[in-house]
Amino acid sequence: MRFRLPAGPGKSATGIESRLITLFGGRIQAKMSIAEIHFLGVMANTDNTVIKLKLQHGFEFEGLPKNDVVTLISNIDDRDWFESFKDLSFSGCVPPNGHGDLCVVVKNSFSGNIEVDAQGRAWAEVWWPSVCDFQNKFVEDYLKAVLQLMRLFKEGRISLPGVRYFCYEANVPKLLLGTRVDSCSGKEPCYSLTPNEIPNIQYFLENTSLPFGDATLRLAHEDFELSYRANTDHLSFLTLMIAMEVLLNPSDRELRYRVSRNSAVLLGNDHDEAEKIFKGMKELYDKRSKLVHTGDRSILNWDDVLKLRQYARETIKEVHKTGMNKGDLLAMLNTCGFGQRPWRDGC
Q1: Do 168 and 230 sit in the same domain of this protein?
Q2: Half-sphere exposure (Cβ direction) of 260: Cα atoms closer than 13 Å
Q3: 221 shares a domain with 167
Q4: Residue 127's domain spans which residues?
Q5: Distance of CA 279 to the CA centre of its chain
């Protein structure tokens, strides 16, 4: 969620700003100080292999025992421990069976003004600008992009359901604000990285910027991301097929053949692999046509969604690697055969 500054003197604040001002009341014997404001998020649907990644702007992944994480969250929120445990479990923040006992958190901190009244309540109008600036610059524009790139690198529904901003008073955490950041719904596997993948994804994170500059690629990636948020398999499937059509369809004719063939040429490392992709995409497109024209959802299964998402994932990355616009790329693919990988080896 991107934040806004309050409306200003003499103007009424709206939305979250009004709720904050109402929540913290008026100044009563207030004391102003500069304090360290902490940022904490508990990652969902991932194991602790991601803690080896190096992040920018002071962010850090860390693996902590789940009981310690639940205790910290319950203390920050001033809630019952078991209620916090249920919320974290429901959000997918507690590691599933077979993936260890560590929760993965992402943390950071920054300096901000804190004004506390006689009741120990922090005045929102004072700390809000610092939190607002951090949220917009570093959470919305950087951290969310990192999570999107991680999903683009490989399959897995890694996400950040919610974050908390808090400060310490006499070693007791005091919640300033909690908000949702990056939630995904679905049945994807737990996100996990092998040792060989660590350097590759690190390079990918450091050398790929979002949003993509090319409008076509940007739209396809938005559809790819929507597939993680759709509530049903068929909606995920259709958004992914739209992504493939956006990138690989040159016209409104022969959609099935053109999208399938261009996918095969673009992604196939050799002739046999390209033939397999060509056949696979045609089968998926047939399911798309039947779904759209008959409304029969029974033709789809979850494996279809994962297969099409993998094609979309690799297509987005390969198109980005070429650095070519859609017209030039499709013209090149049209002149090349299976397994030639034109932008790498030439036709």
Answers
A1: no
A2: 18
A3: no
A4: 18-182
A5: 31
Q: Is residue 340 part of a domain?
A: yes
Please tell me the predicted confidence (pLDDT) of residue 31: 56
Would you say residue 156 lies in a domain? yes
Same domain, 303 and 169: no
d(CA 264, CA 339): 8
Place of tokens 């994804």: 201
Q: How many folded domains does the chain comprise?
A: 2
23: exposed, middle or buried (C-beta count within 10 Å: 0-12, 13-18, 19+)?
exposed
Cα pseudo-dihedral 70, 76, 79, 80, rounded to 10: 30
List pLDDT tens digits, range 329-344: 999 999 999 988 877 7
Alpha-carbon span 262 to 338, nearest angstrom: 9
- Mean pLDDT, the chain, integer: 87
Residue 30: φ, ψ to 5°: -70, 150
- Among the candidates 136, 161, 182, a domain finishes at 182
Q: What confidence tens digit (pLDDT) does each residue in 41-89 have?
A: 999 999 999 999 999 999 999 999 999 999 999 999 999 999 999 999 9
Q: Does residue 166 share a domain with residue 253? A: no
If asked whether residues 29 and 169 sit together in one domain, one would say yes
176 and 218 inside one domain = no
Q: Is the CA virtual torsion 246, 248, 251, 252 positive or negative? A: negative
Q: Is residue 200 part of a domain?
A: no
pLDDT for 95 equals 77
Q: Are residues 38 and 169 in the same domain?
A: yes
* Residue 4, in any domain of the structure: no
Token pair in block for residue 329: 């790329």
Tokens at 323, concatenated: 């650095």
Query: For 181, phi and psi rounded to 5 degrees?
Result: -125, -65
Q: Which residues of 125-159 are buried (b: 16+ CB within 10 A; e: fewer)?
A: bbbbebbbebbeebbbeebbbbbbbbbbbbebbbb
Residue that is written with structure tokens 């360290």 in the block: 36
Same domain membership, residue 245 and residue 177: no
Low-confidence ranges of the chain (pLDDT < 50): 8-29
Chain centroid, CA 167 distance in Å: 26
